[in-house]
Amino acid sequence: MQENPAAQGVWASVTHATPLKRDATYDHRAQQAALGIEVHHTDGRTAQSVLVLTPDQVELYAIQFEQLIAEREQARRSGR
Hints:
- It comes from Streptomyces demainii.
- This is Regulator of extracellular matrix RemA (YlzA/DUF370 family).
- The chain is α+β, with helices and mostly antiparallel strands.
- The chain is built from 1 helix and 4 strands.
- Strand 3 and strand 4 form a beta hairpin.
- The longest helix has 23 residues.
- It is flat and about 50 Å long.
């Protein structure tokens, strides 16, 4: 059996995370939302994890995503 680098204490830096193609969930008792993500490392490895958000964070990001969507639509209309 071959050990993975993480088990040997060798960690590659994280470059970014992308959402998984799954629905986000809300845990009423914990009062938090969860979004599945895939974490990408500099050595090419990926690992699945969960991004946990408070209700305030969900509201903030909803506003920011609405703004991004509007900017994208405006850019489309102006041909950029």
